[in-house]
């Protein structure tokens, strides 16, 4: 099982929710998971109903079996200060640069620098060991940028290593890419059973493969139940209107004839949706990747819902 689990997806597919549920699923049986946020939206804090995350690793949940979930909202400015101290011993100088705005300038004017810092901090957490030589975290789950820029985000260190041929920047970039392009990493893509998210997922898989980045699973989120089987859908046709009306009348419904038309319309809409979803499933199957499926939560996503999604992921093999 890959120790760095990167979760991406088209906007609106629920990738942050999926990343949080995956962190909970992986933390079962006494394991420790670090859930990393890189986009500065504090989405993780909202999901776990806790205060805004500082730039430090903080325990935010206990999983079934006693496992623990920690979270970290990576701040690019603070990460750059860490980087300057780690490689150049410029702790006080770095703080002075921050005061005059140079740190903010560097991370804003050069998005590539920002991505290097974010990925570098996550990979450092993957590699970190305690005094006994054990990994501090069994898994690191990254709530990553959307599918449209995930390949560029993860591959930026490759470009940096090529530009800086020697020195600590080159070495750091290479160390990060050794993690990101190894079996230690899996990049999961979250989608819905709709045409645009599925197409963006297909494009994302192709880009990741072309960049030699390890593609993990497709995670189909917000799957709605099929309320009617195929036989019931076929029966709900205009040719069966009298029979449907009689059935409703026998069941005690008044004005049964008036109910037939809206029932048939709903059945037709349901059948159309099922057909479109099957078509998108065929597209996903053609990608030759394993898949997880998560149900739509009728009550909305709250803390109890996250634990339910985590159980679903465990049932389907996440963490095993």
TrEMBL record:
Tell me where in this chain the ArsA/GET3 Anion-transporting ATPase-like domain is found: 5-180
In its UniProt record, a GO molecular function of this protein is: ATP binding
Q: Name one Pfam family in it.
A: ArsA_ATPase
Query: What's the superkingdom here?
Result: Bacteria
Q: Write down the InterPro entries for this protein, in alphabetical order.
A: ArsA/GET3_ATPase-like, ATPase_ArsA/GET3, P-loop_NTPase
Among Gene3D superfamilies, the record links this protein to: P-loop containing nucleotide triphosphate hydrolases
Q: Where do the coiled-coil regions begin and end?
A: none
Task: Name it.
Answer: ArsA family ATPase
**Source species, please?**
Streptomyces genisteinicus
